[in-house]
Design a protein that fits this description.
With 151 residues, the chain is α+β, with helices and mostly antiparallel strands. It has a single domain, classed as Bacterial Protein-export protein SecB (Roll). The protein is built from two helices and five strands, in the order αββββαβ. It has a five-stranded mixed beta sheet. The C terminus is likely disordered.
């Protein structure tokens, strides 16, 4: 994988991409929850791993894939369970811009579009394994850079 720094994105190219990108599909790749202990959950760690790439079936598309992992922990920080959710957003684009523009979009606008689906899925799956009331706060800031998928 290669990375592209969002700071390298041309503002005009970014604005043109945003204006012309159309969300066409939301694709669920993984929904998994496992409870490994009967202890009460008092804390959790949240990881978000985003990436982007081309869709071989849709050459005029860009796919943004977001994998979220939540490790559920007890008061003494021992693992109680894990929830994993992965989804992809497929955008139709007129022209594929340079990686810094794709990176910036995926780490900002794309992530903000995906996060409500990710949050709800994590919370619902946690409830199904007997951990009701898990609240993941809304995303207010991008968690980091996005890595383009090159395979």
């Amino acid at each position: 994988m290669t990375t592209a720094a969002p700071a390298d994105a041309d503002p005009q190219a970014y604005n043109a991409f945003v204006a012309n990108a159309s969300l066409e599909e939301i694709i669920w790749h993984r929904l998994h929850a496992e409870r490994t202990s009967g202890e009460a959950v008092s804390n959790f760690d949240l990881e978000v791993q985003p990436e982007f790439g081309r869709d071989a079936d849709h050459p005029s598309s860009v796919i943004y894939r977001y994998a979220v992992g939540v490790t559920l922990k007890s008061a003494d920080e021992s693992p109680v369970g894990r929830v994993e959710v992965t989804l992809a957003l497929r955008f139709e684009v007129k022209e594929r811009p340079e990686d810094p523009v794709l990176n910036l979009f995926g780490g900002t606008s794309g992530l903000f579009m995906a996060f409500p689906y990710l949050r709800e899925s994590v919370q619902s799956l946690a409830d199904r394994i007997g951990i009701p009331g898990l609240i993941i706060q809304p995303l207010i800031q991008s968690p980091g850079e996005l890595a383009p998928k090159t395979d």
